[in-house]
Amino acid sequence: MIMEPGGPLRGRTRVPGDKSISHRVLMLAALADGESTIHGLSDGGDVACTRAIVEALGARVDAEEDPDGRQVLRISGGRLGPAQSDLDVGNSGTGIRLLAGMLAGLGFASTLDGDASIRRRPMERVLEPLRAMGASVTGSGDGGALAPLAIDGGGLRGIEYRLPMASAQVKGCVLFAGLSADGPTTVVEDQPSRAHTEELMAATGIDVERTHDNGLDRVTVLPGRPTPFVHDVAGDPSQAAFWAVGASILPGSEVVIENVYAGPARSGFAAVLARMGADLFHDPVTSDLTVRAPSGGVLSATTVRADEVPGLVDEVPVLAVAAACADGETVFEGVGELRVKESDRLATVESELGRMGVDVRAEGDRLVVRGRAGSQLRGASVDAHNDHRIAMACAVAALVADGPTTIDGWGAVATSYPMFPDHRATLLAGGIGV
Ligand code: S3P
User: Is residue 392 part of a domain?
Assistant: First the structure.
């Protein structure tokens, strides 16, 4: 994909339905005995894999479009059984980890597998708590901690589990398993991660209790099944972040991103951009997010503390682009988890933004960017490293480059945001979004 420089960004756009929510509502609908309706599911490849998996397990899914062109799915669930073949999560770490929890509780055997990137990503973080619940789960590779995962489901006990790292995927895995355990299951977090699993379970009739004391967050679920539900999936803040950064670095920009999820641990990027001088407003009534370039035209550097990271973990690559266009040294502290995402994002941010002339270094679990307000980046040839967020962060950086940027491996973007180039074109044309 060749991206020309351009700007400012103006007008309105949608973003895909939130990816984290989309995986979870598909799974909850598959478990619910009856018909659920989901509006505005993510149109990315990751969620398509989870949809195909719940269908392979016996859920019936019918799709249509509403008058606004948004997808409406009707899902009949509640009678899941073994699939004919291995279940393919594609590139989705969220998919494999959440589904491992759900399948560990269902009384039949399954094998979860994915692409080459999935086969490299750490699975011990879900195998360990699932085994503590009594699950029979076998990993592959050296040490048996990689996908494919063979799961012989059923016979789980409820446990209390303290997360060794901030991870909504691991929390979600344990809570999904907890739906089929013999008693309550509690997850304890030192740092709150995104709350979609517990929010959606509570909204679909599961008995969920959340408490906060002594600096710890605790979520307890009781065994049970969701009741059929209707859910309208809000826009994905992680995708909105690309346009928010684009608008922040291009003087004269003003974008409105429609109906962006506003719940906990997802909007950290907006707080960071505001601190850097951008003008953001997340409307509490419509959930539309409006972003304008800073009035004085200049972003300034900031320090992103480790305790902020769970609330913006996926946005670090594009925030590094904002940092490249801000005066001073921006430090992202405690971002070691980025090393085990779709790519080693500390290494890929360093190498690919580096090729575009950004002074960026990964130092242990920190990322340091030395920026200059108003600086032009270099149009270059970069590699997505099979990572959608690296590709899109480079595409935003390309807007302020001195010439065209060629992004190899752009295909990875289809996992989460197939319409990205169309929405980019619309905002560059200052028009109304698709
Ligand atoms: C996700 C959680 C995050 C995030 C991922 C989606 C989720 O991972 O990076 O894109 O939906 O639970 P961790 O919380 O495991 O870091």
Answer: yes
